[in-house]
Design goal:
The protein has 113 residues and is of the alpha+beta class. It is 23% helix and 35% strand.
């Protein structure tokens, strides 16, 4: 099993959710996050004063899938989240050694569905 973590633009979340649904991926967790990379923040005006906003709001999407589904899910994330501009985000893939559904005690593959 693999855990896919994607950091995406907030306005791309609905498009990603619909795209994942079309490939029958239904279990996702999202977290609002802030960060910066090459985008380096931006300036905003508030009551006549200029402020530097260092951390840009993003959404972190976490999905645990069977190893065989990783490429399909990553391709879907890329297609639905790409704008072609700096700040589109990143995808990280991590190894998952065990998954357990708390309610039933099901493990691994059975816990994912």
């Amino acid at each position: 099993m693999k855990k896919i973590e994607a950091i995406i633009r907030p306005y791309k979340l609905e498009e990603l959710k619909e795209a994942l649904s079309q490939i029958e991926i239904s279990g996702i967790t999202i977290t609002p996050v802030k960060g910066y990379g090459r985008q380096q923040g931006h300036s905003e005006l508030y009551r006549g004063a200029e402020y530097l906003i260092d951390f840009i709001p993003k959404i972190k999407v976490e999905i645990v899938v069977e190893s065989k589904d990783v490429e399909r899910v990553v391709d879907t994330i890329i297609k639905s989240s790409r704008s072609g501009k700096i700040g589109d985000g990143k995808i990280f893939i991590l190894e998952v050694t065990k998954a357990v559904r708390i309610r039933t005690g099901q493990e691994d593959k059975e816990a994912l569905s």
